[in-house]
Specification:
Layout (H helix, E strand, L loop, with lengths): L1 H13 L1 H10 L7 H25 L5 H43 L9 H35 L1 H30 L2 H12 L1 H15 L4 H24 L5 H27 L1
Helix pairs in contact: 1-5, 1-6, 1-8, 2-6, 2-7, 3-6, 3-9, 3-10, 4-9, 5-6, 5-7, 5-8, 5-9, 6-7, 6-10
């Protein structure tokens, strides 16, 4: 039963987030796009501090060790962001250098982009898919860890992963739409990358069963991931000078994310 829930949770989080992102990017729910950041931030923080961390601290693991792993997780995700920024900056540097060289070679006249430029763009698209797949695999392991600890934790973790992946997948769909030329192809490719979440869930299920004593530390790593994404990626994008109505809307959607997680947790606990 737990394995089935892990599969359902990972598929819902991995593929469901892609389809929600597609609906938003296609304009069906575009007026709510700006609020997704607030909703995701509230869901992530609530899941980390009200569910994952308390569950980890109820184990026999020491508080000092758990906090050390939490701190290490935050630093790790910070470094991961740095590597990704360097990678993208390196790609853009070569792309701009290539464009400048092509412009100089043609005497400054406008000409169609050469094939090499197109290949660079396609390679960038596959890079996005590779990064998505690795991220999705990690999300699957985190979801499996949560389900192995408690069904309630698994449900709210799946919901949190879905919420925080939506804004990310919206950007991916834009990039893939440029590299593939069609919205349908972009949606299929990002959806396939999202299915890797289920693979991570299966691996996580057997891994956690073999390393049950490490479960509290897996939960803390999941918490550090959610807290870092919320505080480093999502909330900084909300820190803009807004009028009172928009500020209250931001706060309202952030609290809605908290309430949503608490509600799902309560329903799961009731069952």
């Amino acid at each position: 039963m737990t394995l089935l829930l892990i599969v359902l949770g990972t598929v819902a989080a991995g593929v469901g987030s892609v389809w929600v992102a597609a609906a938003l990017s296609l304009g069906v729910l575009s007026r709510y796009t700006s609020h997704m950041l607030s909703l995701a931030a509230g869901a992530l923080l609530s899941t980390a501090f009200m569910h994952l961390m308390p569950e980890a601290f109820e184990s026999a693991a020491g508080a000092h060790d758990l906090f050390a792993v939490f701190l290490g997780g935050v630093v790790f995700f910070f470094l991961l962001d740095k590597v990704e920024l360097y990678h993208h900056g390196h790609e853009h540097h070569h792309e701009h250098a290539h464009d400048a060289h092509a412009h100089h070679s043609h005497g400054g006249h406008a000409h169609p982009a050469p094939v090499a430029g197109s290949e660079a763009k396609v390679a960038g698209g596959w890079s996005v898919l590779a990064g998505d797949s690795v991220h999705a695999f990690g999300d699957g392991i985190l979801i499996a860890s949560a389900f192995m600890a408690d069904v309630k934790l698994g449900l709210v973790t799946s919901l949190a992963v879905l919420a925080h992946e939506v804004p990310h997948h919206m950007g991916d769909l834009v990039v893939l739409r440029v590299t593939t030329g069609t919205q349908r192809a972009a949606l299929v490719k990002v959806s396939l990358a999202g299915t890797v979440t289920a693979l991570g869930g299966l691996v996580g299920y057997f891994l956690v069963r073999q390393l049950d004593e490490w479960l509290p530390f897996f939960l803390v790593v999941a918490s550090s991931s959610f807290v870092y994404v919320a505080l480093a990626d999502l909330i900084p994008q909300l820190q803009k000078r807004l009028n009172l109505a928009d500020t209250l809307a931001q706060l309202g959607w952030l609290l809605a994310g908290v309430v949503l997680v608490v509600t799902v947790s309560g329903l799961a606990h009731g069952h």
